[in-house]
């Protein structure tokens, strides 16, 4: 599924998103609830801004010494009886997971919510090899039923209304009474819970992501609100952790620091409901737990970002606050971005992972309003990184020809202020002559994008500089 | 704070004001002169932000050098726009990072560059203006001024001293209007969806006049409001503070002068 990149069609995606009434209704939830909750919980914590600095510094420090922490982490995992696998590419990661499943004769696999799982397309791959993956996070379960990608990194089904969900349940959960009442959200929850409970018990392998890998202890940490992650990883024969290299932090204390900004930024909670620390497989004295514990550490293009101008992006802790605060995301939702990661963080990360030729629209489709940077818990300068992508696009002549020639013409005049003065003075007079009676144009050549929906003001007459100089001469 | 009277202030009028709405430039000059500054207008075109944000760093640098040289003799550089002032103050030093010749000049230039209203309040310590406007005003925080230059309380404080003016906040005043420079023509549908929300909030505030500090945002908002037939007027904050509210608002026809029909 993750191989289907529709980012090149961002404009068409956006257009259909804007016309989708259900989606527009669902998006209001993001715009109102997430923002208000985050603000409230951040305002309540006097040290919140300093915690953001601290979270940034912890991630920067770890990235600067990533090799050492990776080695330490692997050592600790092995000591606790687990196994670490390194995957350079998405394909490597998929193969590693499949081999583990096959060695155990696995037929079904439960999954906790994992963006890296979406990134490497693990579900489709397992399915193609005869293993049934079952998403156990409610949002992921919903989009799995619909064969969709998540539209938000922490609320994957935020684009759906409860009426759509009820219809999907009636279609998917055959065997339940067709006349059952699914109008209340609690009815939907209860049904999903009952269906998923059987899947948990039947699964041979449980796959989760990781919010943190802790080098000092060899632990992986996930945060969830549903507890599905715990059932996913403790009941089956094996627990596989999928994590990209930047999930490392040095110590449990470091993870605890970042946890203080993670849930607050993401959902406006002080803590997620469940914070689960896993260290190795079941020990002799443990009452439960998986017999095997595997960690697949995935690069998939990230080490190439370490040495370059996009390194700051590797601080990202996947809280989703940037998309929650993004006016473009509010307008078009996550699917318009055309791949796994939407919103401002996706606009920076996606070109790194799928290529600028495919994802070039994403860093361009931003007003640079700066709200994402303002609230990012690890202070990633997202607009600046998007601008770096635009620079690369310009250097490689990937930006549209009309934009390039328009810029060239404009720059020719702008770099010659006297000539610019003549040209703009003439333009101002011409436009005023044409439009002064109405004060605004309803249509202008070469500006259809603007004037289709907005009027354009008629210039007042002579340019400011021409008037100022005339006045100065008269004085 | 040393006395700022008699300081030579270079007015960076911005390309949009120069071409579309010169009255904003005259309003800015009046406010600066009222505060005791000597206003100069070196020959200028554009700060280079369109090139900078389109990834054309070479053109952005060339225009930045041009602006820095043109304003080198001024004590201050002031722009009636948070977006352009942000380019001068925040992004010029970024453009010359690692350049031992130009970085010090860009840094010195950045240090003396300001957005108009924050310059009046924070540097010149202007606490009130001599202006009158009977009506209810709602203020839109343009993004760059707000987030790059911390322009938030200054315009509200001065608007509060305009006789007859009542300030009324709209919902989401700090949310982008969807202009975004070239964004509004590259992604016009998305831009329109964003400005529609802004226009709805402005109208819902019940204010008679929508005011902001950036002509780009103002043109975008006014364009949507007049197209939709809304009655709310749109004006630049400098015009209101300079007592120039008798001008036709943005996008309105010129006043009938008898022979213009």
The chain-level mean pLDDT of chain A equals 96
Name the poorly predicted regions of chain B: 257-261
User: Class of the largest domain in chain A, according to the CATH hierarchy?
Assistant: Alpha Beta
**What's the SSE pattern of chain B?**
EHHEHHEHHEHEHHEHHEHEH
Q: Report how far the terminal alpha carbons of chain A are from each other.
A: 71 Å
**Counted beta strands of chain B:** 8
The stretches of 5 or more residues of chain A where confidence is low (pLDDT under 50) are none
Total of DSSP H or I helical runs spanning 4+ residues of chain B? 13
Number of helices of chain A: 24
What shape does the CA trace of chain B take? globular
Largest sheet of chain B: 4 strands, parallel
Secondary structure class of chain B reads alpha/beta
What proportion of the residues of chain B form beta strands (DSSP E)?
Answer: 5-15%
The helix-and-strand class of chain A reads: alpha/beta
**Helix fraction of chain B?**
40-55%
| Fourth-tier CATH superfamily name of the largest domain in chain A | NagB/RpiA/CoA transferase-like
What's the quaternary structure here?
Answer: heterodimer
Spatial strand sequence of the major β-sheet of chain A: 1-10-7-4-2-3
Commentary on this structure:
Chain A is an alpha/beta fold and about 475 residues long. Chain A folds into 2 domains: about 300 residues, Rossmann fold (3-Layer(aba) Sandwich); about 60 residues, no CATH class. Chain A is built from 24 helices and 12 strands. In chain A, strands 1-10-7-4-2-3 form a 6-stranded parallel beta sheet, sandwiched between helices. A 4-stranded mixed beta sheet of chain A has the order 8-5-6-9. In chain A, β5 and β6 form a beta hairpin. The model of chain A has no long low-confidence stretch (mean pLDDT about 95). By secondary structure, chain B is an alpha/beta fold. In chain B, β7, α12 and β8 form a beta-alpha-beta unit. The chains are: A alpha/beta (about 475), B alpha/beta (about 260).
